[in-house]
Amino acid sequence: MAPTVEIAIPTATLSSTSPPHTVYHITLRLPLRSFTVSKRYSDFSAFHSALVNQTNAQPPVPLPSKSWFSNTNSNPRFREERRIGLEEYLRAINEAPDSRWRNSSAWRAFLNLPTAAAASTSNGTSNTSARLHAAITDPSSTNAPITDPTLWLDYYRDMKAHLHDSRLQLSRRDQETTPQKQHESSAQAKSSLVRAGSMITTLEEGLKHLSGRGAQAGESSASSSLGDGEIRRRKDLLINARKEKDGLEDLLHAMATKTKLDHAVASMQDKDALLRGGNDSSSEGRRTPARSGRVLGKETERTRELGNDGVLQLQRQMMQSQDQNVDELLKIIIRQRELGTAIHEELEVQNELLKLADEDTDRLQSKLDVGKKRIGKIS
């Protein structure tokens, strides 16, 4: 049986709004992910009513009652007692042997859990927790497209985490000094990139269903519809993610090529040192005369059968190949720079939109204040 979700309310803070209110931060922990949901007491009260209406049964632990003589904003002790009571309330539902409260849509909506994992099957509801855990941690394991917008965003965050891990492994590979450590870092980076590529494909298929094309193709879709603007935003996210994955793959290939070239150059330097001869430090600074012809020493499979002219030609070919790889690396760096510039421009646009939203909020708040004053005068 899959591990259940661990629920806790570690903190309760006051909002920065006027007037302030208490916000309870619910932490949900899974084996592969943790996220936080912030709720007010009024949200808990509405959730409790919806839960009782859907299940026709009271939860194992009653919801902490509302107090008319004390306020959580000005009374830290009462705020802490209510936080503990709300935590016990959620944990009792989560750990109860009876799963009807956890199977309700009110429970999933309150905790922002994906709705796609909670659909009933012909085998009953005994495996709901297992399917819910599987849908959150790895939607592709269900062999079904992602049809839940919230689940799509969770899966996208997982994909970005794999890209981040790959970038860290490439940075670590560049810092390693032994071939074995470099090979291990390269293998881990490649594994993360392969995983990210399959996840991007899954996200693209899920976005087709979310945009309605899956239903037009004759497939049944119970997903929530998204607006055109949100669909375009998610498409842009996938385009940037695929560009980032391609850039990391090119960087991994360039690093592997550079390692081979370094080994080849080191061999050529040894070859050149053998051809020139060396200095005899034990002969009181006198230069040892170079031997005529080739000097036997460290040979490779590529140079063993070559003459002096052949070795020189091989070195020129390697230098030319190295120049080409440097050009490819330069293209990758330019692509990364363009990607960073595009992200920066997108962030500036988002900041402007947030600034406009703040201005609209302030304008609306001022209108509400004026309305309240007029209502007070009328009453």
From TrEMBL:
Signal peptide: none
Superkingdom of this protein's organism: Eukaryota
Composition bias, Basic and acidic residues: 172-184
Disordered: region residues: 172-193, 274-300
GO CC list: fungal-type vacuole membrane
T-SNARE coiled-coil homology domain sequence ranges: 316-378
Keyword Coiled coil (UniProt): yes
InterPro entries found in the cross-reference section: PX_dom, PX_dom_sf, T_SNARE_dom
PROSITE patterns xrefs: PX, T_SNARE
Subcellular location: Vacuole
GO biological process: vacuolar transport; vacuole fusion; vesicle-mediated transport
Keywords assigned by UniProt, alphabetized: Coiled coil, Vacuole
GO molecular function, one term: phosphatidylinositol binding
Domain PX: 2-117
Function description: Essential for proper morphogenesis of the vacuole. May exist as structural reinforcement on the surface of the vacuolar membrane and be required for maintenance against rupture by osmotic pressure.
Record protein name field: Uncharacterized protein
